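protien #1 (seq + structre)
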Amino acid sequence: MVLSTLYPTDFQMHLFHEGTFYQSYQLFGAHVLHDSDRIVTRFCVWAPNARIVRLIGDFNNWNGTEHTLHRVNKEGIWMLVVPENLEGCLYKFEIITSNGKIVQKSDPYAFYSEIRPNTASIVYPLKEYRWNDEKWQQKKQKTQGLSQPVLIYELHLGSWKKKDNGDFLTYTELANELIPYVNEHGFTHIELLPLVEHPLDASWGYQGTGYFSPTSRYGTPQELKYFIDQCHQNGIGVILDWVPGHFCKDAHGLYQFDGTHLYSYEHQADRENVVWGTANFDLGKPEVNSFLISNAIYWMEHFHVDGFRLDAVANIIYWPNSYESKPNPFGIEFLKKLNQVVKEYDETVMMIAEDSTEWPQVTAPTLYDGLGFQFKWNMGWMNDMLEYMKTPSDLRNQSHGKVTFSLLYAFSENFVLPFSHDEVVHGKRSLLNKMPGDYWQKFAQLRLLLGYMITHPGKKLLFMGFELAQFDEWKDKDQLDWKLMEFDMHRNLNAYVKELIKIYKRSKPLYELDFLQSGFEWIDVHNRDQSIFSFIRRGKKEDDFYIIICNFTEKTYTNFKVGVPSDCQYREVLNSDHHEFGGSGHMNKSVLAGKNGEFHGRPYHIQMNIPPFGISILRPVKTRKERKGSGKEKVRSHASSRGKRE
């Protein structure tokens, strides 16, 4: 590189201040560059209200007298070229504000940082990495779209599993242990709680200081690339939890960066996030747009991430602290621009909104005035179902509508059904411990809830530990309760989860038409007295459908009539009451013949056993061999023995 290219062009600076420099990290931050006969390190920072900006670090004994940055434009871009290779050196910017105050700040565009509690940035070049995920990238191009199975395992890397001495596993160690585990269970994606650098472990990464700096808690950026590469080579997509709405107020971070509220709103009512003690990004400021959208592109380009789950979208759509829910035009336009830019860069990247509001068209294209997300979390379904499940079974007939209500709006957006980390902390209890009743009933109802979730329209997300049936809430300072797998009921629940996921991924009716009304039909939605729900899930082919029956009470029934659309035979492909799952064994081992006689508004019906606190999944028998079979084989084998999707 010739020396003249070390300096920003007028066009780059124009784009940055316009809010459209979507690879601004190539200019800002610390870059080790090659001149024709030497190696230099360039530092660039935006601090328009600074009087003086100095570079301090371990290379100058933290004395910036000889390393003063030069202001290169009136809008406040500062730059310094040091004629040395400073790779690996610690550094900060020492800023003298307009009122003479001195602040020492980490680099907003730093690519690596000291491990907490230290706060310096590290000169870390954007090194090349030899990716081996070509097959994954090709597969994404072919299988992208809304008609694919999506089952996300949300996890916090620091508390999934720890070393014997209590230390965190590294990115490399996680690749060796986590990836086989995820594949064994069958999840399609993992979603990682925020990996941006953050000072406080207890914030779980949601209060960041280094948006371009993968947290050093678990290793280097190169090691994180290895982890993601290994995920892709093993068929696992990687989604990052990302927080473009607010940031940490620690002194070394973005807060009052140049002595003014540079990255956050000027007015206190808009700036201060009183719930989390953070500062809200000023999304109307063009330079902040360049910063945040560049950050998304950075994670895509240099870490090959497959998606972003945007945290607290409600805090972006509406003005913060606005109890009358006043729309924020800057936030709305930012979301549209972000989603449009990401889609143009890579249309396979999943953009997921964690949005608790009723804002319309969150997942509609920006072309049609939507926000442009691909998916939105269905917080209403989550809240209704957990409230319903916490209700004693003999009172559930009074809360019948909590189950049925979600189907009134299930196809208004492209929904993900979430049971996330937020539902198993702060005294809310674990999923298992939310279930009422005795020990056996808790497990039975958790199996039922998971089965209903998998068969309900929408993609799925579950937080780590559910598959172990943890009694305790998530403990972010400890690892998961792995010793539970020594106990039968927990092993049985884990076996059920694996089988349920197998059936989901192999069964097109359970995911192909998730977002179309034609993919779902109630059979009986009115059975309030018995709290039994039955419905049909359909695939694209007319004869490709499943029948699902859920019993939310402890009562069992024999010869229970269910209306069906066809007079064919039906086979039970999953019964959550199977002995191998810890159930009581109320099964339907033989094929169920459709009989003439209208029932539930259908021309035919079947008669079957209904298990207590159980879910039964039935499918039409399609082959002569199945019709002639004895039907005495274990129910689990019906799904797991088939080598292709039905």
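ok now protien #2
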Amino acid sequence: MPVWCSRLLYQLVLYCSIPLVLLYFCYRSLKDVAYRQRFSERFAWQSVPAEAVGGIVVHAVSVGEVVAATPLIKRLLQQYPKLPIIVTCTTPTGSERIKQTFGTSVFHCYLPLDTKGAVKRFLTKYQPTALIILETELWPNLLQQSHKALIPSIIVNARLSKRSAKGYRRGYCFSQLLLPNISLLLSQDRATLRRFRALGYQGAAQVCGNIKYDMAIPEPIAALVQQIAPQLKGRPVWVAGSTHAGEDQLLINACKLLKQRFENILLIIVPRHLERFEQVAELIQRSNLSMQRRSSGEAIQAETTVLLGDTMGELLAWYQLANVVFIGGSLIERGGHNPLEAMCFAKPVQAGPYVFNFTQAYQWLAQRKAINWLTDEASIVANTQLLLEQPALAQQQGDAGLALYQQHSGACQRIMLAMTTFLPTDLAHFRQQQLAKQHVWYQSNIFSSWQSEYFKPEYWQQQQAVIGQSKGRNTAWFIQYQQTKLVLRHYYRGGLVGKLLSDQFFITPVNHSRAMQEFTLLRRMHGMGLPVPRPVAASYQQQGLIYRASIIIELVPYSQDLATVMSQRQLTAQEWQNVGQTIAKFHQQGVYHSDLNCRNILLDDNGKVWLIDFDKCELRQAGAWQQQNLQRLQRSLLKEQGLSNQFYWQQQQWQDLEQGYKLQKKT
């Protein structure tokens, strides 16, 4: 199925499912009123504070992902103290954890539904400079619209099980809406990276490990543990976390039998989903075991045998207080949940046979003899009794799990290094400002503060800072600002339409405007180490249904374009090879130059080759366009030769360029 057809089918299915999504929110709101609050954020209709614009968006779908992302977000706050960090999620419990953990140090909202309109509004309002997504929360419109706006999408802690990979292969047409739009993939393990490659992902990737091995304990959890610990003193505590239907009854029955041996045992059972709280409560009540609900807020009574964890976001506290931990979703074919949270507290871990969601972690635990496999009620009772009766064995297993946890820590540091290497090098100095209908992006290490006059040539003329201007169809002004030479260029239309509208363009989201697109692409290429002018500022000025745009870039010093040089002298074979190698470097990074001609290639006094004028250019996957790019350059050389009586160009010199191009391609 063609990609355009897959995209159309996805949009149709998505819009048809919106009523069902709304019904789902209404249903969930019967038990949690938060599901019908802040509804505007689900469609990106909310207003956004100016201070939140232009930062980094980190998406963590729910509580578990927020906990995992916490050390990474804290590192981002340290690395970019002047850059806004926007943390999104999709659940009220995730939202509460974000607020508890970060307070006002980050901005927070729900990630909108993946409709094209909602995603466009979200990106237009926040204008992020990067999008970081945890694990596999991949949405086609979010990734595609970010790619179109040249916003890098970085998937961190990426995880893809065998089972999930099979699903993606069956939905191959859907996968192709996702994979080409991922800018950087940082996987938990080699198996995940291998599966993404097998699906067709061709972008930048690196194995960084599992960020959950770097988990930070939130302050509210530490405070809760201190509060609850005295109430459980001397009691054997068995915690069953993230349980599913089909497991609860087995655990309750086992607890009933264990109570005959351990009279004061306490089972803390925490269902994975809040809509099952009432169902599990009924199961406990029918067992005739003394039950208490955590949501009551009362102290845990001595006669309570089962505590129902019917609040969200407290599982870490229960794990820390446990003597033995059972990981839910593993006695049924759900695939099991994350054992790392129990491991970091040195707790002995129990699990059923179905752990394919975290195969690697459980394999490592098995190698260390730090996992207890359960299959039925009898094995649950026997193993739990063993661990409670032999605390030395339980401690030995817990210590082995903790050692494993510590051995694989450091993923956060590796992820930060990979991201900061990939992201624009000037990220710390990137600023956005809105003045009435004018949006301005600029680099604060060049302009410490911004004035709207900076985009007007008249202002620089009054300052006697104009040091020259171009002689092309549209004037570019060369400016001396302090110690930096700059180029100010206004955007104009070409062709017949240009004669009518000149510099007026029909309104489009700020991120998609010509100035911001070129500015963003230059930043990306500059970060890649490609020889391009450094972007300094860009402007989007809206007026009614049209906008005007300008850009300021750094002047490439002591340079001339190829056409000018070739009107004066003949280039050497080595210089032509350097041109070919430089173009190949851009192609290797997927940079498509829409107007690659001999006037957009510069040579400086040191013989370095530069490319300029990236208006209407973009990043693409490898394809036929690369050869078409070269052919366009060749036509421009022939055209210049036909227009000038003195133009030092011979057709055989093209072979030198091609030789340099091919040599670079082999590296």
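Residues 427-554 form one domain.
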